[in-house]
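Methods — Computational structure assignment.
A single polypeptide chain was analysed. Its primary sequence is given first, followed by the predicted tertiary structure written as structure tokens.
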Amino acid sequence: MVSVISSGSDNLEWWRHAVIYQIYIKSFADSDGDGVGDIGGLIAHVADIAAWGADAVWVCPWFESPMRDGGYDITDHRKIDPLFGDLASAERFIEECHRHGLRVLLDFVGNHVSRDHPWFLEALASEPGSDARRRFYFAPGRGEDEDQPPTDWPSIFGGSAWTRESASGEWFLHLFDSSQPDLNWRDEGVRSYVRDTFAFWFDRGVDGFRLDALPGMGKTGELVDAHLGTERFVPESSPEVPFWDQNLVHEVLGEWRSIARSYQPERFLVGEVVVNGATRERSYTRDAELPSLLAITLAKAQFRAESLAAAIRQVGEGLSEGAWSTWTVSSHDERRPVSRYAEGDLERGRRRSRAVHLLALALPGSVCVYQGDELALENVDDIPVDLLQDPIYERTGDRTLVRDGCRVPLPWSEGPAFGFSSGTPWLPQPLGWSALSRTRQVTDPHSTWSILREAVRSRRRLVPGDPDWSLGEPVPGVLELRRGEDFRCWVNCSHAGVPVPTGWRLLIASEPDVGEIPVDGAVWMERTLAPSTP
């Protein structure tokens, strides 16, 4: 059994202020030369992650999978895919992280499994109405020949959320790709299997889970049309539908939180909750459910003061009392912020990405930094079509939706494959990434890696622990985050530099040695004069 970090008082509810480093394992580091990242690569760089200042790592799925959706199509939640290693190497990684003071979060996918999962293979071989089929959502089609889907429900990945299987002619539900059939969370066998899976990993020292696509687990069970009139389901803007964000998910979350609380220290659960509106978000952070939500609104915001402020306020409104946000500017599912903010100029995008990360690190709660954002990598949008692996492209033909561009292997050093692998990386890396490699940036005090490292390592010392915050716009186009009386973070989204206000001094700046708050920049400031009294 793997050791866990001490449960002393300093470690209780550590997630309230943690910096979590997200690892997309296929693209992190390759130790065996096959061009795909693996657990050996993770182990080799644990010390690097800890030295940068992170408190925890979140590892995207490393479980057994045919990899039709980057590992989010799982055949066994308790086995490591041979592409990445084995259970023994996973346990070594967990132990190495703990030795360096890092907690470990795994990605848990509860909405669906792989089409190759033994349960689904058993269901395909079984008769309609069988117990094996009740673990999923099977239904006869509509029309005289039952050749039309049971409902008009669209998939998040585009097209119908139903696929017909040939043996019985029934249709099965998949809110994502057809290789990912949805589980029926009304089935006790499903719930029992997952409870045991949580215990399996917690007993091996895992400190928590990031819970993928949670609202999809909540379905009414009624096969009625949604009348959305769209080719693709977009949950953050959708009206209420029978297949997303229904009450069943809260019943399941209550069970999972009880398991997490049965361990000492309590294991952390942070949920990916994409729903329409703060009221629905709040329902996921009631005391019996999640302590934190993964706040992806900053990953959707534009580099405009009003857009960033609206994103932050939306998150605050979506939390129940006592719950905390886990902020993120990016992830394995989003275009990299450098490209999102660039408006045709990647250097502008890099300045803005540093600024928004500085803002996120000043907010109350935890912060998740996606691998490569600390290097200011851009999205890779020119991957040859024959190398694309994202099933969204196959289902929609829309390159703007493809996620492969944010999953390109990391540049660690100069030379072949930029130190990622001794072989050919599974996705091609841009030649310009040599200048952005980690070995180049660690020796440059003005690099993105160095600036964010200073903020990450200084965050607890410089940013007040009081959870209260407020926003303002002291200068047109400048967003102000207030934390207590003596700390401010300003983000300059205007078209001109802004002087540091009288009575304040700079602590950290996204653009060093400029003497002001530059365009596309952000600063942390500390009060030097007592506030005047009325």
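Note: Residues 6-11 have pLDDT under 50 and may be disordered.
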